[in-house]
Write a structure and sequence with these properties.
Radius of gyration of chain A: 14 Å
Distance between the termini of chain A: 9 Å
Strand content of chain B: 25-35%
Helix content of chain A: 25-40%
Structural class of chain A: alpha+beta
Largest interface: A-B, 29 and 31 residues
Helix content of chain B: 10-25%
Oligomer: heterodimer
Number of helices of chain B: 5
Shape of chain B: flat
Strand order of the largest sheet of chain A: 1-4-2-3
Number of strands of chain A: 4
Chain lengths: ~100, ~450
């Protein structure tokens, strides 16, 4: 049923790759709240500006992003779907669950 | 949130594969067959043979976006709509870049966007895309010399393109929920279509977006299927404007169209035979639309007719648009906005402290509800997920109060989720819960809207 769906959204502007820890913690919090959900989904849109900033500071995007996805999958049985990249602003995340 | 989805597709034009290296290289242009989405409106694209390949790529990408991202969301929420504001095409090799440069040199991006709306979109089955304000552009990175690649995306998820893909199409989109479905789909439930199948209501599958063009015609992919011996595949377009008026425009059909407004003897022919798209005509209540410009015979199997109910006493057909559309609308005091400071409504607050009544008068609007002590209706701190300013009570409306969610933990109105930024009409007697998904052990804060008189009578 449509009304069974709950979506929470978050925005994260911390530096890469530390931001992945904050995002993981946020997902953990949402997953705990939705522990009885029959389905959960995480959609991520990363900020091109923040990623470029990380690269300018000499940071790599991989393998941190893969590790992050694998850890979320292992810990919460959740696939983090990378929706794409947006140009500026913080990284954006949506957590949806269906009860 | 604004989302960018990038899909890799093949333009498939102007290139051949080098058998030694397996790489693609520029090749002399070869005339392409007209695309399934080729222009049929007389817009003049037919001479440009690469256009077909790009249109095919765009069609494939839109189908991919629908299948991979949107279909699931739509299945979960029938009201889910996807408003695409931006389409960028990024070539991945020099041949694709040349093709795009040629295309955009010859054809205005607005014209390309229009063709996508008219010709490509109807061929994406079951879509819920709104392209009414879309912009389309190429994106050449590296000063126009090196092939453009989305290096960030590739670094994150690896090369998205297969060896045959030569361009990336990026869709910038956001959700834009459709009006709540009801028995009367956007106010045209009473419209009648007389065609070869007989007399039937308008067979509209889902409510339209304002300004979304609905294709009427005999093509199976048309939004409104019209069966007639002389009806074109895409005979005309119907759309609703933001002032709730319906408009019709002949799409340059073979036999044209004509419209007669109530009380008038003469027909207007918005599209003469075989011409280019004609001027739009407003379909006022009581109007008749015939899918033929010239009266030939009265056979509706040949020349279908669409009849708008009503006598034409007032212009336009009221529609329910927006999140509050499903709310029953009951006039308050004859529909007039209360002018005095005396309360006409009361909010019954059920929170951790028990139950209380908060009177609401027109003069006190707008105001906010939340944990901030500065709010006229403060919520106790025990409701930790309630934001300082969680809800804004904006104005009286017929049927209740217009409200907007400000808190990031959302809300629910009459059991339906409301996200941050959503607006709706809070109907009389409906419960509004301030947090959609409270933390475990957190008390629920429920607000119930009552008429002031009812609140006084309540124990």
């Amino acid at each position: 049923m449509p009304s069974d769906k709950i979506t929470m959204s978050g925005e994260f502007g911390q530096p890469w790759p530390e931001v992945l820890i904050d995002i993981r913690d946020w997902i953990q919090h949402q997953a705990a709240l939705a522990y009885r959900a029959r389905r959960m989904e995480v959609r991520l849109s990363l900020s091109r500006a923040l990623l470029n900033d990380a690269k300018a500071r000499g940071k790599t995007l991989q393998p941190q992003f893969d590790n992050f996805r694998q850890k979320v999958k292992a810990d919460f049985a959740l696939n983090v779907e990378l929706e794409g990249l947006h140009d500026s602003g913080p990284h954006k995340i949506e957590f949806s669950c269906w009860r | 949130m604004g989302i960018v989805t990038i899909l890799a597709v093949s333009l498939g034009a102007r290139r051949e594969r080098d058998p030694a290296s397996g790489r693609t290289a520029s090749a002399p242009s070869a005339p392409a067959t007209p695309a399934a989405g080729g222009d049929s409106s007389g817009g003049g694209f037919g001479h440009f043979h690469q256009f077909a390949a790009v249109m095919e790529a765009l069609h494939k990408a839109l189908v991919g976006l629908h299948q991979e991202k949107i279909k699931g969301l739509k299945a979960m929420n029938p009201r889910f709509g996807c408003k695409i504001a931006r389409i960028e095409i990024r070539p991945l090799n020099e041949a694709a870049k040349e093709t795009l440069q040629e295309l955009f040199a010859y054809i205005e991006s607005d014209a390309i966007a229009g063709t996508i709306r008219r010709e490509i979109l109807p061929k994406v089955p079951g879509h819920c895309f709104d392209l009414s304000e879309v912009g389309i552009s190429p994106k050449y990175e590296g000063g126009g010399q090196s092939p453009a690649k989305d290096t960030l995306l590739e670094e994150l998820i690896g090369p998205a393109a297969t060896k045959d893909d030569d361009c990336m199409i990026a869709f910038g989109w956001d959700r834009a929920d459709l009006p709540a479905p009801s028995g009367d789909v956007a106010g045209i439930g009473g419209w009648r279509l007389h065609d070869a199948k007989g007399e039937n209501p308008i067979p509209l599958k889902s409510p339209p977006f304002p300004s979304q063009r609905l294709v009427l015609g005999s093509d199976p992919s048309a939004d409104i299927a019209v069966e007639g011996s002389y009806t074109s595949g895409a005979h005309g377009w119907l759309w609703l404007d933001h002032e709730a008026r319906w408009w019709y425009r002949d799409a340059g059909s073979t036999n044209g169209s004509r419209v007669r407004r109530p009380g008038q003897r003469d027909w207007i022919s918005p599209g003469r035979t075989g011409g280019s798209p004609a001027e739009p005509v407003e379909l006022t209540p009581g109007a008749e639309l015939v899918f033929a410009a010239e009266p030939n015979n009265d056979s509706r199997a040949d020349y279908p007719k669409l009849i708008v109910p009503g006598s034409g006493g007032r212009r336009g057909t009221p529609i329910n648009v927006g999140a509050g559309a499903a709310t029953p609308r009951t006039p308050i005091a004859g529909g007039a906005r209360p002018a005095s400071a005396s309360p006409v409504a009361a909010i019954r607050v059920e929170d951790v402290n028990g139950t209380r009544i908060f009177p609401v008068g027109a003069d006190g609007l707008p105001f906010k509800v939340g944990r901030s002590s500065e709010n006229p209706l403060p919520i106790p701190g025990a409701h930790a997920s309630v934001s300082s300013d969680h809800l804004e009570i904006r104005a009286f409306e017929a049927g209740g109060l217009r409200v907007r969610v400000l808190g990031r933990n959302d809300a629910s109105l009459a059991g339906k989720p409301m996200k941050k930024g959503d607006e709706a009409i809070w109907g009389w007697g409906e419960a509004l819960v301030l947090v959609e998904s409270p933390m475990e052990g957190e008390p629920v804060c429920r607000l119930i809207l009552q008429r002031a008189a009812d609140a006084e009578r309540a124990p």
